[in-house]
Amino acid sequence: MTPAQSMLRAATGLNLSKSVVERAIKNRMEQTSATDHDTYLQQITPEELTALVELVVVPESWFYRDPQAFVAMTDFVRTRLAVNKERLVRILSIPCAGGEEPYTMAMVLTDAGIPPDNFMVDAFDISPTCVARAKSGIYGRNAFRAQDLTFRDVHFTNAGDGDYRINDTIRKQVRFKQGNLLEFDLSTRSGYYDVVFCRNLLIYFDKPTTKAAIAKLEALLMDDGQLFAGYAEVPSFCQHGFSPLQYNQAFGLHKEAAAPARKPAHAPSKALPPRAARSIASPPSMPPVLSPALPVPAPRARVTAPAKAAAPAAPPAAVDLLAEARRLADLGDIKASENKCRDHLAQHPESAEAYFILGLLNELTNKPQMASDYWKRCIYLQPDHYEALCHLALLAEANNDDAGAAALKARAARIYKRQQAS
């Protein structure tokens, strides 16, 4: 790691590549008329460091991004207020980028009929420019990517030239400040927040920084609070004291100490590691194992010609075999689940999803090398298989391969961004 990389990592916590850092330095040297690279770094001021940081942070966001998280948050806030109508629900958004996320929270809660005196959103970002933009409350077309833009007509005023300004009724519900999560003083904010949103930050951290950031977030969150992460970050939280919420596509978590006990359908066929209690009966769009139990969709009915009397019975549909494999794994019958996957592969030898499930099963039975082999086959067959990349990243971290883990996380993050944009 170069001195410049170390300096920016200390300032931001971000695990930045040499090319990204050098590109930012070159940009700032041109703007400040600096001519010598080493002299620029040796004489860098706090103000110049802030300007350099601005070039390496990633303030990408938009209104109503990953909307199921806001649905889950609203349900949770309603439950809080049903117990105590006078309560002030405190919500944290970090990093808040240009303010799209915290303003979305305020809009959603207002539209749900939550009184303004019952909630407040604190929003922090390491970038002063992002905070200034958020405080201005003025946004261009890039911030409005949701399919339904009704909220823009309700909560914004046309500011001309394609820009919109958020209304004061929403602005007053959000307090913006510049700040770095890793430098948070917990003396006055321990257990302070009912809800924390920290999405798509950890994917840029190395293993020690991820652990430190999650420790900060855990301390900020109330013991019975809820935290919402980015899709790529759920596995990391589950490794450090959190369990997933039962909300599809919300990517929400709570502290394991506060997780309600769930009784299995029947006793597992054999003892499994603690992570086996987490279901893999989830659709491909959710992180299996690290997701809550979800019902396996019933196979769609197919219209076929009547079978002839002498014809042999048709083999089970491929989707049925994988659904059955997930169901059996959730019940603890690992061997039967493996057999279903292999039956599926006999019919479809290039099934990435079957290899993915086999990887999960071997992970559950403490066979990390076999799990890794299956997941590598999975991404060989399907290079954009997001979940397999996430699990391989976790294995790389467990093996102290920080560079490999960072590369896999970055690759997964790029895939997720493409999926969201499509």
From TrEMBL:
Ranges for region Disordered? 262-284
Which source organism does the UniProt entry give?
Duganella flavida
Designated name of the protein: Methyltransferase
Q: Where are the TPR repeats?
A: 352-385
Record-annotated CheR-type methyltransferase domain positions: 1-233
Q: Supply one GO BP term.
A: methylation
The lineage, from the top, is: Bacteria, Pseudomonadati, Pseudomonadota, Betaproteobacteria, Burkholderiales
Q: Write out the entry's keywords from A to Z.
A: Methyltransferase, S-adenosyl-L-methionine, TPR repeat, Transferase
Against InterPro entries, the record matches this protein to: Bact_Chemotaxis_MeTrfase (IPR050903), CheR_C (IPR022642), CheR_MeTrfase (IPR000780), SAM-dependent_MTases_sf (IPR029063), TPR-like_helical_dom_sf (IPR011990), TPR_rpt (IPR019734)
Q: Where along the chain is composition biased (Low complexity)? A: 262-283
Q: One Pfam match, by short name?
A: CheR
